[in-house]
Structures are given as C-alpha cells and as structure tokens.
Design a protein that fits this description.
It is built from 5 helices and 4 strands. The chain has 125 residues and is an alpha/beta fold. It has one domain. A 4-stranded parallel beta sheet has the order 1-4-2-3, with helices on one face. α4 crosses α5.
C-alpha cells in the first residue's frame, strides 16, 4: 500500500484509496459529492494567520515550512489523528492526501506527506 499526494482538481480523480483533504478551506468549485472524500481534516492545515502570511509566495516557502512544522509540534492532536488514520488505512488500501493549491511543490500537503513518510517510515508514490 502507498501514501499518495494529489491535487484535488486532478481529473480523473484517483479513487484507488482512502482520500483525505488537508486544506483548512474547502477548495473552490469542488462539490462534496465530486470530491469523493473519506475524511476532511481541515484542522491539520496551517492556521489562518500562517496561511494568509504565506499567500503561496514561493520565496516564503522555507519559512512557511518551518512555521507550519512548529504549529504541528505545538498542537500535535490533529497531526497525530492524521498519522493514526494513515497508519490504519495503509494496512488495507492506499491513502491519498489531497490539497487544492495550484503549486504542486510548495504547499502544506507536501510538508505533511514528507513528515508522515519520515515518521511512519513509508514510501511515497
């Protein structure tokens, strides 16, 4: 079983696994039916203040990553919940971490998947 990372706007949607959205705000233009989500863990996303500060400015990404990881460390309950779900679901199916950002390399989902991969000793597809 694999941990996957995918933009929620990708067509066709990868439905081969347990789908978790990790954005604090619901992605525009995506209906809840078409999202095919198993779980929306909005609380694991960056705080509103951090999200607004970052504004998807790639130059701020290194500091965004540092601040976001600090938020996860300071309030681990939501990350630990995500980690437990991923660990449980990977026993029987793929897990797909979903996000809405246009930039596929500089967003919170990338950071989460890197952290999950490290913490759970996983491979990513």
């Amino acid at each position: 079983m694999k941990l996957k990372l995918e933009r929620i706007y990708t067509k066709p949607a990868d439905l081969d696994g347990y789908r978790i959205l990790v954005d604090r705000i619901w992605p525009r233009g995506i209906s809840k039916v078409n999202a095919h989500l198993n779980k929306w863990l909005k609380e694991v996303g960056p705080s509103n203040d951090l999200r607004k500060w970052y504004g998807h400015d790639v130059a701020r990404y290194p500091e965004f990553k540092e601040r976001y990881l600090a938020e996860l460390t300071a309030n681990p309950v939501y990350y630990n919940s995500l980690k437990a779900i991923v660990q449980e679901q990977l026993q029987s199916q793929n897990v797909i971490i979903l996000y809405g950002a246009k930039d596929e390399k500089h967003n919170q989902a990338v950071i989460l998947v890197e952290k999950l991969t490290q913490d759970l000793h996983l491979s990513i597809k």
